[in-house]
Amino acid sequence: MQINYDQTYPKPLMVIGEELVHLLKRREYEVIVERFSYALAGDRPLAQALTCDVEACLCNEERSARIALAAEARIKVNYFKQPDSANLFGLVECFLPLDFDHGELLATLIVTTENQQYYVELEDIS
Question: Of 6, 31, 50, 80, which residue is 20 to 30 A from 60 by alpha carbon distance?
Fold first, then answer.
């Protein structure tokens, strides 16, 4: 998703994070990947990869959790000191509380820059 420079400040990036949280709570994975893509999809179809990765985080041999729909997510915005060779600019970490588990689901958006253009992509789910 391309954004403008004014959207690279903490408040607008938090709004983008809130949008991701809302979509994750509604399990709108197709919309998420259309809007943000998904860096860790590999060769898998984007929405299928995201669905599988979210489910793998929530349910395994040791846990059977789900995203707590009524709980408020914590959103943190951080910046890299300077864009590096990978053009990393910042990241938005969205911590979604879980039901039936004391942990959180972490969804990370990465902000990159190239030629004065800024982009936000869903980097990871863990």
Answer: 31
* Nearest in space to 5 (alpha carbons), one of 110, 113, 109: 113
- Average the pLDDT over each of 47-56, 84-93, 94-103 and give the range with the smallest value: 84-93
> What's the pTM?
0.93
Residue tagged 């893509």 (tokens): 37
Q: Which residues, at least 6 apart from 103, have a Cβ–Cβ distance to it below 8 Å?
A: 63, 65
Q: Which residues of 96-109 are buried (b: 16+ CB within 10 A; e: fewer)?
A: bbbeebeebbebbb
Give the tens place of pLDDT for each residue, 94-111. 999 999 888 899 999 999
**8: helix, coil or strand?**
helix
Nearest-CA neighbor of 58 among 101, 108, 109?
Answer: 101
95 three-class SS: strand
Question: Residue 84: is its pLDDT beyond 70?
Answer: no
